[in-house]
Amino acid sequence: MTTLFTRRRLMRYLPLLLWMAFIFFASTNSFSASNTSRFIRPLLVWLFPQISEERIAVFHFLVRKASHFSEYAILGFLAARAFISSSQRLLRTYWIHASIILLVSYALLDEFHQSFVSSRTASIYDSLIDIAGGVFSLLCFAYLKGSKRKKLRTE
């Protein structure tokens, strides 16, 4: 019984914790703008040989901001998945609140962490993009959950 309970808890929370660890790693020098440009710039030059440096810079900026949005959208989904199936009644009932608290806290801590990395800059705007990605994911999750429940009631 304990083994099954432990396995279920691990399967519920491990993806969330691993993704949080990935976000922490992505906040290091390894994913700084100078390092990501090593991949994005050659790809753009290969795809569009006449592209200007200004357009490369704009595209690089947009890719980095879309990455913020999407990595926190995934975090939001994993948090909702973990909390909605929690063995703790409080977390199951208030899964969306717990997920939002986690998203906001982690986004702010992520930017705080980046303030200590010399090749990174902390920005409240990045935190807002992170939070927006997570909340977008939670809203989609809640909508799909509601649609599924409504469909089950009509059958």
Describe the structure.
The chain is an all-alpha fold and 155 residues long. It has one domain (2-31, 63-154). The chain contains six helices and no strands. The chain has helices at 2-26, 33-47, 53-84, 89-93, 95-114, 124-154. α1 (2-26) packs antiparallel against α3 (53-84), α3 (53-84) packs antiparallel against α5 (95-114) and α3 packs across α6. The mean pLDDT is 90.
Blueprint (SSEs and pairs):
Blueprint: H1 2-26, H2 33-47, H3 53-84, H4 89-93, H5 95-114, H6 124-154
Helix pairs in contact: 1-3, 3-5, 3-6, 5-6
Question: Which features characterize this protein?
Answer:
155 residues, mainly alpha
Output the number of helix runs.
Answer: 6
* Oligomer kind: single chain
**Total of domains:** 1
Q: How do the helices and strands follow one another from N- to C-terminus?
A: HHHHHH
Write down the Rg.
19 Å
β-strand percent reads under 5%
Shape: elongated
Distance between the termini: 34 Å
Mean pLDDT: 90
* DSSP helix fraction: over 70%
- Kindly state the number of beta strands: 0
Largest β-sheet summary:
none
Structural class: mainly alpha
Low-confidence stretches: none
Short description:
With 155 residues, the chain is mostly helical.
